[in-house]
């Protein structure tokens, strides 16, 4: 697909646009507007299929960067209107070169899922329905779908059925919403009403994290005004798991309200904290336990991988993503709180104009008006069923094992982690060669892996998160790496 020229993209009066009607838009004609919708949606449908069909053969990493894409889409704001279908065609024709092959089978960068067919189609419906899904009183269909999706997830994760599930944009906001709720709750238990009395003179909350926590925990702490000087960082083992002896020492060293952040799925190694050992220690010290399980919580859905999450259900809050392991489109994460009363204390709004019908979405997340982003998650779960979710997670794990085995067999490549879950980390003998291999893989185009740093050394990371990855994709990727190393 050739990019349209920058000049054509900038033109407000090319063959694709229809004449302006002056100050008033043509859209005031309702019948005309309905026709616009049909042809615009048909154009989007066609372009979407073309994109999906291109995934297997196009380079996974784009050949152009931001500057080229600004050229294609930039220029001054057009003075006059352009018809909807023409706009969609411009988008589709221009976008290709800068799009990343994320929904395909060989994107292994960061921790990023693809999109299951049912979830993708459901997401289109969410846009067409245009439901502002903050409250059951306003949008019963989408709130019901999200509530069911939340209940199904609690069941799959083995978490308490009465917990609240708030759909947010992703793991970052889920961590933020859970930690905000946690701070409110531990202060309330210490006799401090944060909503009324504010933070200024509040008792100090001890914030205990592992040495290999995800960066989104650090950002959540910043959003909450919990400064680095107030954190206690507990040492971790060689896979990034928090040491129970370290947690015991950290909590013994102080007193008062405390929040302990644990992790299901370290982003480099995929390792899980030992919840069975750590959570009882934290609870014995009266701490709130939060689990960041952006992709790791999903291990609990598989009878074969569930052991990794043993003891996790005893925590007080859990953050996870649907757009990673469950393979729904961006964006969708879940903030799960054991006691919904804590969510309500943190988020329920007091506005008179709002009518409550039980637990509303706006009672359990920071948002008010919101997209029904949980509906694609409902569709993904409905299409997979319990066995299908387990099979998906086990397949990701099996692909990771196969990738690790294949990489380990390449002369000079060393796999650095245990590969108990979906992450594979590897490197060459020296840092410069490792970084060069990472760049060469992106340039070669067969697959995408992410550069990383582990224990002060350069590494490369391969995350198995796409339902679309087949054994053939693993083989193609290994062949590419072999040719680049050899
Ligand atoms: C991806 C990730 C996050 C952040 O999630 P987003 O969906 O990117 O906001 C947090 N924690 C871990 C362990 C992750 O892998």
UniProtKB/TrEMBL annotation:
<dbReference type="InterPro" id="IPR015424">
    <property type="entry name" value="PyrdxlP-dep_Trfase"/>
</dbReference>
<comment type="similarity">
    <text>Belongs to the group II decarboxylase family.</text>
</comment>
<dbReference type="InterPro" id="IPR010977">
    <property type="entry name" value="Aromatic_deC"/>
</dbReference>
<dbReference type="InterPro" id="IPR002129">
    <property type="entry name" value="PyrdxlP-dep_de-COase"/>
</dbReference>
<dbReference type="Pfam" id="PF00282">
    <property type="entry name" value="Pyridoxal_deC"/>
</dbReference>
<dbReference type="InterPro" id="IPR015421">
    <property type="entry name" value="PyrdxlP-dep_Trfase_major"/>
</dbReference>
<keyword id="KW-0663">Pyridoxal phosphate</keyword>
<keyword id="KW-0456">Lyase</keyword>
<dbReference type="GO" id="GO:0019752">
    <property type="term" value="P:carboxylic acid metabolic process"/>
</dbReference>
<dbReference type="GO" id="GO:0004058">
    <property type="term" value="F:aromatic-L-amino-acid decarboxylase activity"/>
</dbReference>
<dbReference type="InterPro" id="IPR015422">
    <property type="entry name" value="PyrdxlP-dep_Trfase_small"/>
</dbReference>
<feature type="modified residue" description="N6-(pyridoxal phosphate)lysine">
    <location>
        <position position="324"/>
    </location>
</feature>
<keyword id="KW-0210">Decarboxylase</keyword>
<dbReference type="GO" id="GO:0030170">
    <property type="term" value="F:pyridoxal phosphate binding"/>
</dbReference>
<protein>
    <submittedName>
        <fullName>Glutamate or tyrosine decarboxylase</fullName>
    </submittedName>
</protein>
């Amino acid at each position: 697909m050739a990019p349209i020229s920058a000049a054509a993209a900038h033109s407000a009066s090319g063959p694709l646009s229809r004449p302006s009607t002056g100050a008033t838009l043509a859209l005031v004609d309702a019948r005309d507007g309905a026709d616009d919708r049909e042809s615009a949606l048909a154009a989007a449908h066609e372009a979407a299929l073309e994109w999906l069909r291109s995934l297997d053969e196009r380079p996974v990493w784009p050949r152009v960067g931001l500057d080229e894409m600004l050229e294609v889409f930039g220029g001054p704001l057009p003075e006059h209107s352009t018809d909807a279908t023409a706009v969609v065609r411009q988008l589709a024709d221009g976008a290709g070169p800068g799009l990343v092959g994320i929904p395909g089978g060989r994107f292994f960068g960061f921790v990023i899922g693809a999109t299951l067919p049912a979830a993708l189609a459901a997401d289109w419906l969410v846009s067409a329905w245009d439901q502002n899904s903050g409250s059951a009183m306003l949008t019963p269909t989408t709130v019901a779908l999200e509530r069911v999706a939340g209940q199904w997830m609690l069941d799959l994760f083995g978490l308490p059925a009465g917990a609240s599930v708030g759909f947010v944009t992703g793991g970052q906001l889920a961590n933020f919403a859970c930690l905000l709720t946690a701070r409110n709750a531990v202060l309330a238990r210490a006799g401090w009403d944060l909503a009324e009395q504010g933070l200024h003179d509040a008792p100090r909350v001890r914030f205990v994290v592992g040495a290999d926590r995800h960066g989104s925990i650090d950002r959540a702490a910043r959003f909450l005004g919990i400064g680095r000087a107030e954190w206690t960082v507990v040492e971790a083992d060689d896979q990034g798991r928090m040491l129970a002896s370290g947690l015991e020492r950290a909590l013994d060293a102080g007193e008062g309200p405390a929040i302990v952040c644990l992790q299901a799925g370290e982003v480099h190694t995929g390792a899980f904290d030992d919840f069975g050992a750590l959570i009882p220690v934290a609870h014995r010290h009266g701490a709130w336990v939060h689990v960041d399980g952006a992709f790791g919580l999903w291990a609990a859905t598989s009878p074969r991988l569930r052991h990794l999450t043993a003891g996790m259900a005893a925590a007080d809050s859990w953050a996870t993503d649907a757009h990673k392991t469950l393979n729904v489109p961006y964006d969708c994460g879940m903030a799960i709180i054991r006691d919904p009363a804590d969510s309500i204390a943190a988020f329920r709004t007091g506005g008179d104009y709002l009518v409550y019908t039980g637990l509303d979405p706006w009672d359990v997340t920071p948002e008010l008006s919101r997209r029904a982003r949980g509906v694609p998650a409902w569709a993904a779960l409905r299409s997979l069923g319990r066995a299908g979710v387990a099979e998906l997670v086990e397949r990701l794990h099996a692909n990771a094992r196969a990738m690790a085995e294949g990489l380990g067999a390449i002369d000079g490549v060393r796999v650095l982690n245990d590969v108990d879950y979906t992450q594979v980390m590897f490197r060459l003998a020296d840092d410069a060669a490792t970084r060069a291999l990472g760049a060469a893989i992106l340039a070669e185009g067969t697959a995408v892996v992410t550069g990383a740093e582990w224990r002060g050394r350069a590494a490369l990371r391969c995350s198995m998160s796409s339902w679309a990855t087949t054994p053939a994709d693993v083989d193609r990727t290994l062949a590419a790496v072999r040719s680049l190393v050899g």
